[in-house]
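Forum > Structural Biology > Help requests

Title: Can anyone predict the 3D structure of Oxidoreductase?

Hi all, first post here. I have the sequence for Oxidoreductase but no way to get a structure on my laptop. I'd be grateful if someone could post the structure tokens.
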Amino acid sequence: MQTTAPNPRRRTLLHAAYGVLATVVGLAAGHLVAALTVPAASPVLAVGSTVIDLTPTPLKEWAIRQFGSADKVILVGSVIVVVLLLAAIAGVVADRRETVGLLILVGLAGVAGVLAVLRPGSGPLDIVPALVTAVVAATSLWWLHRVSDQGPDRSSSGVDGPSRRGVVLATGGLAAAAVAMGALGRWVTSYRLGGTDIALPVATDPAPSFPQGLEGKYSGISPLRTPNADFYRVDTRLTVPAVDVDSWTLTIDGDVEQEITLTFDELAAMNTVERDITLTCVSNEVGGPYIGSARWLGVPLKDVLAKAGIDATKADQILSTDVDGMTISTPLDVALDGRDAIIAIGMNGEALPREHGFPARMVVPGLYGFVSACKWITKMTLTTYDAEQAYWTERDWAIDAPIKLSSRIDTPKPLSTSKTGTVIVGGIAWAQHVGIDKVEVRIDGEAWQPATLGPQVTDDYWRQWYLEWDAKPGQHFIACRATNKDGDVQTDVRARPFPEGSSGLQEISVSVG
Ligand SMILES: Nc1nc2c(c(=O)[nH]1)N[C@H]1C(S)=C(S)[C@@H](COP(=O)(O)O)O[C@H]1N2
Ligand SMILES: [Mo]
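Reply #1:
Sure, ran it for you. Structure tokens for Oxidoreductase below:
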């Protein structure tokens, strides 16, 4: 086998691989430079985030249904596949016309650079990582050509000739450089992120002692309080923002008497309350996992807004902005109707985990997270829905989105097999800000039977429930439904999450015997 006269197909593949390798090295270099400067300006993240933002709502809904929390990884994975395909084409083109191939690589990086600069909250320097990617990718490909270039004069070099060894060394070296830069980028990111172990104030208005949940007695029921590590996470971010608490500030502007900016210490020095509140995502399907309950420590939203003095005759929405410029709207009248809306800085006795909004986020009981729970919050603008639209408003989701009364069966699991005899059917029910009055269970379409409720925490918190079921052998269907303290019964009318939350009853099938 001769390296000098490879068959055309092999040669095409080889050059496609050069294109891919050069691009991967370039992306790794750009990612590393971004990790050292502005992480979100990484070409990979800039393209990925733009794709997430541009994905039409139905496709995003489909992805969330199909892949759950892995939806972003799948979407971005597809982008990477497309980019590497283009890189392979650039490599093949470069074999014939080197300049054109190199220009394709530079063009690809250029697209990433433009997207990085167009991201909300970005600066002109955000183009630097993409420039680095362009230079490194093009240089790598150019260098691979020089190393592998086997002109007629070297036609006798053969399998073990210097040029072949050169190619192996060069490709191996570039691949190793890519891996090393990738690893270094990760290390830099985690180093820069640092810890979140900041001192939290003691609540001036603490929550009462927390009751014992049912989970100790009946395994399979969601714990009454969700541990931070198990708390569902939903956001548009590919990577968790690295917020430095010492330079972080919260600004209140718009229709206010006087614009104010608070440091973290100033915020934490205000009166703090501790509240048990259940958070729910509008994307949660009936019976789905995007719900969690925690004890939040924070400052009442009304106190924070009062510092600026709001003009409620003008404004009808609070437009919250996160550290990257992403926006979430909240109806002002709902936030100020007396419910425990807070700017939270603590979650279950710790600082907010980075995934959940460190150092501060909004929590409004009774509203879905996408119209209330802004994480990494840095600004609240008092404005009107006419004047400004938030991220999801632009994507046609509802603007006033109270959490719908619902319930979920945690145990037994759908399609599981239980032993004949007493089986515990159990789960959770929620009607934030109204409270749960009753949960009922229906077996095989027969009469609804009342379940026993777990301890009441607050009306803003979910309620555990269970029923001892005398299970007979065979296939069975189990459904549940909740009734709130206003007497409303959970509807069996099905609705999908878009645009204001799912509804309907969960019914599972299990076998016994
Ligand atoms: N900055 C920011 N805040 C955000 C989001 C986001 O994408 N970006 N997602 C919201 C949505 S849709 C929900 S359901 C909650 C989820 O909060 P969690 O991830 O802490 O559970 O955060 C909300 N806050
Ligand atoms: Mo959500």
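The pocket of MTE (ligand 1) is lined by residues 231-236, 279, 281, 292, 322, 326, 328, 356, 369-370, 373-376 (CB under 6 Å). Residues 8-192 form one domain.
Shout if anything looks off.
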